[in-house]
Write a sequence for this structure.
């Protein structure tokens, strides 16, 4: 077995291998590599395992280095999933190679955002994802998986005569997203980040806007991979929650998935035990723990970026009070450094 860094000659084979591997994710594709490089300039390290000149495993990683935030190696950033995929021997060899790279680059830690625990590394389950099984007939999802209260909220939304549209436009999505992230006390991604996703994945990414009398109330950013649609980012204007635009938007997306042969609706990542996680469970989604694995090179303990972190609590409190104009300007520079 040979472990080597990705070269241009193998790029097509990489994506073919990723697409055909049952444990791969949207974020293992090389398009995600280009999105991060173009948007934020982080250095990528993409390694593959070969046997008889055939790919038998892959591991994408990015180096983060900043005087304030430190040095770390992440697989993969700005995504819920990552890590190595391949046969057992290839995954083990790729992770061993990542250990060596972590030491060579003198990072504090290596983080592998694997969907399942595939090694004996230090592991946390601070985050979950929520997966709703779809059906070619939306009525099956409506009757068998949604709670009675959720169905009532969707009906209330439908009575508001909201306009719900999918598109590849970013402006309206980003306006609502920026407001929501400020109100949550969290820096937001740059607009170019989302534009680059739409550019790299024109056939597998969309925005959704729910509006009333041409005023956007809810916006979501969807990506599509194999048999799954993923609600990756979504935001609602707080003052319009009693119009239930979130429920209307999500149900319309679920109907779209059912009628377009998608088997799963992924609600995206949540913090373990959070109200966000509980909201997704009310849609009948199955909660799955995300086992993030760590190799501590210079680090003393596993990093905690959740809302339970005391420093983050202080930051959140301050950020919420800042003017939107200011958070729009400085937010993207900060978000760039938080994987």
């Amino acid at each position: 077995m040979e472990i080597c860094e990705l070269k241009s000659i193998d790029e097509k084979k990489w994506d073919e291998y990723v697409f055909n591997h049952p444990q791969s994710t949207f974020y293992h594709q090389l398009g995600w590599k280009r999105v991060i490089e173009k948007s934020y300039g982080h250095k990528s390290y993409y390694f593959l395992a070969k046997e008889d000149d055939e790919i038998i495993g892959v591991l994408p990683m990015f180096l983060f280095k900043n005087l304030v935030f430190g040095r770390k190696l992440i697989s993969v950033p700005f995504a819920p999933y990552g890590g190595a995929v391949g046969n057992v021997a290839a995954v083990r060899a790729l992770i061993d190679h990542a250990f060596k790279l972590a030491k060579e680059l003198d990072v504090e830690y290596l983080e592998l955002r694997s969907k399942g625990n595939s090694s004996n590394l230090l592991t946390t389950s601070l985050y979950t994802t929520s997966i709703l099984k779809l059906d070619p007939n939306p009525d099956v999802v409506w009757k068998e998986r949604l709670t009675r209260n959720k169905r009532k909220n969707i009906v209330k939304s439908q009575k508001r005569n909201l306009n719900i549209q999918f598109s590849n436009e970013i402006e309206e999505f980003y306006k609502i997203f920026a407001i929501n992230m400020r109100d949550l006390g969290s820096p937001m991604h740059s607009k170019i980040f989302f534009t680059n996703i739409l550019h790299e994945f024109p056939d597998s990414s969309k925005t959704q806007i729910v509006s009333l009398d041409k005023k956007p109330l809810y916006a979501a950013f969807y990506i599509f991979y194999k048999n799954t649609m993923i609600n990756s980012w979504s935001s609602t204007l707080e003052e319009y929650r009693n119009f239930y635009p979130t429920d209307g938007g999500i149900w319309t997306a679920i109907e779209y998935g059912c009628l377009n042969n998608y088997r799963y609706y992924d609600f995206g990542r949540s913090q373990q035990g959070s109200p966000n996680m509980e909201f997704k469970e009310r849609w009948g989604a199955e909660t799955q723990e995300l086992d993030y694995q760590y190799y501590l090179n210079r680090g003393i303990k596993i990093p905690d970026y959740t809302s339970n972190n005391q420093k983050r609590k202080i930051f959140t409190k301050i950020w919420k009070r800042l003017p939107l104009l200011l958070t729009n300007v400085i937010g993207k520079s900060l978000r760039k450094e938080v994987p």
The chain has two domains: 2-120, 129-290.
